[in-house]
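## retry 2 of 3
previous attempt timed out at serialization; input unchanged, resubmitting
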Amino acid sequence: MIPNLSRGADFAGLIHYLVDHRDHELLGLAHVSSIEHAAAEMSAVASLSERVRTKLLHLSLSASPDDGVLTPDQWLLAVHRHELEFGLAGHQRVIVRHRDKDHDHVHSFWCTVSVETGQTPPKRWFLEKGCGDPAIGPRALTGEEVDRTPPHRRKRKSYDSRMLPRAQHVCRELERELKLRELRTPAQAANDRAAGAARPVSVGQVRRAERTGSVPLVERAADIRAALDTTDWSSRQRALGALGLAFKPVSRVAIGQQKIRGVVIFDLSDPANSVKASQFDLADRRYGWRQLESRNAPGALGLEEYWAAQDDAPPELSAPGPNVSSASLKAEYDRLRAAHVAAEFEKKRKRHALREKLAAAIAKLRGALMRRRRGEAKKLARGERRAFYSRFDAEVRAPAIAAERQRFEDELASLSRSRWPDWSEFVAVRKKSASASTSQKPLSRRVNVTAVMRSRPPDDLFATPHPALRQEATKQPTLEVKWSDIDDIDPATLAALAAQRGRTR
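## retry succeeded, writing output
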């Protein structure tokens, strides 16, 4: 059983999501007259407290597909246990069951303001940090537990402190009591790692393998650990590329900056087949981002520096010798594709940051224009203001916002995605590079890429110039070049020509 929690204040919106146009069943109401009037009644009670912002607590509980369909009494018991844990007994509550997914699940939500007191639940006693007890876990202490726990080992905290771990603890107890499929607790997972047990393949990974045929990466743990055991990020990327895999950092915005929070390993042929690097942890060796960083060789780049260096570094394409094996060529292709995926990931991050910057700039501009419009309207008679508003919006506000958007759109266009060639295209380009390296023709001759594109037949796979070559192409003199002269182009240009058909996935 998996719990999920969310907070808010929109009772009507949540009821609309749970009930309207959904295959649902109402399992229970508490202190409200009906589901139709629940939103209004809960909002009225929530208005008793002016200080409370999160007036709504929403809990969803999902059973495993292996457990089948639970009875209404079992779901009511599960919700009641969570209600007691959160101190919400006696509060307004609605329980709705959905039948529109493969797994059985219910939604329950409460008004966090009490009908009787007009306040949220009082503070509860919890074990102090570092004083954990496996028998108690993260949940709130009962009266007897408070009495026998020394004062320095307990602390009063808000009723909603660490709600998700507490809900997970309640679910583990319910799984044992109702004989449902049991998930591992954090303590059990830590014990398994200490014993050196292999990470199990999750149900989601198994089902995904059945749908797509991709091998779960956990089953390739030994090879992936060997690749991650190298002593710098560049070597790790190359070693993973030889396996048809790659890594990418996972980041989130913290204090206005993008911060790396971990590393994900994914299959190059199926990027959705991915797993956190920490999934490969052993009892005596960890594979999370910080642990890998700590094992870098002296002077090696950290992940942030390495990833930033990949942004502007074009893939390198060296001409193969006459005895290059297909395996080494495949390793070369995987390495270059990993670099391309990394570059695309960084461009995606920059696009996201640029869109956020655009939204902030537009909001600031709207505010300035609104203040200007208000100031100018005050100088006019009331009867003249409506026409002034329309004229101001059409002649001042709309053009100013459009110009601001265009300024950012030009920058976004430079971050558009490019496509890396498939295997057959890559082999074809590499063969031409090999023949060029063995011929007597000089490889340093520069040609205009645009001219080459124009002289290529209409069925050319690489008909659109690569963004990285647009600036250089404009600087070079126009030459009339036949497609047969492609052997004269240096290998780096060939590699760029290979990345020019549409968008990649």
